[in-house]
Design a protein that fits this description.
By secondary structure, this protein is of the alpha+beta class. The chain contains 15 helices and 7 strands.
Length: 352
């Protein structure tokens, strides 16, 4: 069974040509310090790609010749390897936060919520996730669908699957899911663009998440998270619900610390849940009213002039399942609050 019927039939005569992207990869060995140059085993001609092709053919009935032809069209992207080693989350919180919590994203969020209010309400009613949270995630990820990525997904995933040893297994799994997704949804795998890590569409779903949590929220017969805002909204809400979002429960509150007892709470992150009452005993005081029996974790956000402390609830943990960074989750939460407040203020002005 082919990837996309007839898509690669004209490429058979290229079978014996030296792949341009592999030539570029080989030439880069003398100058690049990226992980791809670490060893010969990290290159496609080491056999890793052929093993991948064999697995796709054996397990999923893909055609080996079509897969080889497709990979000849993939292009190695050394810039992706550099981007993997300098994520935005490495910045201090006071530098990271303004990248996402700023007037442009707040105004854009109010507009997005207004334009999609009916769908956002339906997503909340079906999945339990507030409109502001779904809006903020889409705002952080793609500026409300305006920037869904400039890398071809096939280039990004091939580069990382066969040229980034630290996470090669993960990205080979995502590449496998991407090819399966392309077949299931009738997409051209050489045409879709996304992030440098291979995330796709308005909500930036990795292929495995697209297949697992993507929903046809408008009932058009296919899951289109690339163009269809309704599907993207429903899928983001479905994703968060699947990871345990608790409707009506808090996300995070600022905290004040004293003494040294709190320091042990920072060592294992989300492995150290305590009640708010236990946190108080260890010198951590919430700055907003919360029930003493609520389970929380202590969060530290490093700033240029010192640390900032928060208590995160289960819903905060759920946000980190979308992106494992505490800074990311906090940016989403704070952006959601700003959007909600500005929208409420705008509505109050027009009410009689």
């Amino acid at each position: 069974m082919g990837l996309i019927k007839g898509r690669f039939t004209c490429l058979g005569r290229l079978a014996r040509r030296w792949p341009v992207w592999l030539l570029a990869w080989t030439l880069s060995l003398g100058t690049s310090s990226a992980p791809a140059a670490a060893s010969a085993e990290s290159l496609p001609d080491s056999g890793a790609m052929e093993q991948f092709i064999d697995r796709m053919a054996g397990q999923h009935d893909f055609d080996r010749g079509e897969l080889r032809a497709m990979f000849r069209q993939a292009q190695f992207q050394p810039g992706i390897l550099k981007a993997m080693d300098r994520p935005a989350e490495a910045k201090p919180w006071d530098v990271y936060r303004p990248l996402f919590v700023n007037p442009g994203r707040i105004d854009g969020g109010v507009e997005f919520w207004h334009d999609n209010s009916v769908v956002l309400v339906r997503a909340r009613e079906q999945y339990g996730v507030p409109e502001a949270i779904v809006t903020a995630i889409i705002g952080v990820e793609t500026r409300y669908g305006r920037n869904t990525g400039s890398y071809r997904v096939i280039d990004a995933l091939t580069t990382l699957a066969f040229g980034y040893p630290p996470r090669a297994d993960f990205f080979r799994d995502e590449l496998e899911n991407y090819l399966l997704l392309s077949r299931e949804e009738g997409m051209d795998p050489l045409a879709i663009k996304g992030s440098y890590a291979g995330a796709i569409g308005i909500g930036q779903f990795m292929p495995s998440s697209y297949r697992r949590y993507g929903v046809d929220f408008d009932g058009k017969g296919r899951r289109d998270l690339y163009h269809d805002v309704d599907d993207a909204i429903g899928s983001v809400a479905n994703y968060l619900m699947a990871y345990g979002w608790q409707p009506g429960q808090p996300v995070a509150v600022p905290a004040r610390i004293r003494g040294e007892g709190y320091e042990s709470l920072l060592q294992s992150g989300f492995g150290t849940w305590r009640t708010v009452a236990q946190m108080r005993e260890l010198g951590v005081t919430p700055q907003e009213e919360v029930a003493d029996d609520q389970q929380v974790v202590l969060l530290r956000l490093e700033r240029s002039g010192g640390a900032e402390y928060w208590l995160g609830f289960k819903n905060f943990y759920v946000l980190t399942r979308y992106n494992r960074s505490v800074y990311y989750a906090m940016a989403v939460y704070q952006l959601s609050r700003e959007i909600k407040a500005q929208r409420a203020a705008a509505q109050s002005k027009v009410e009689p």
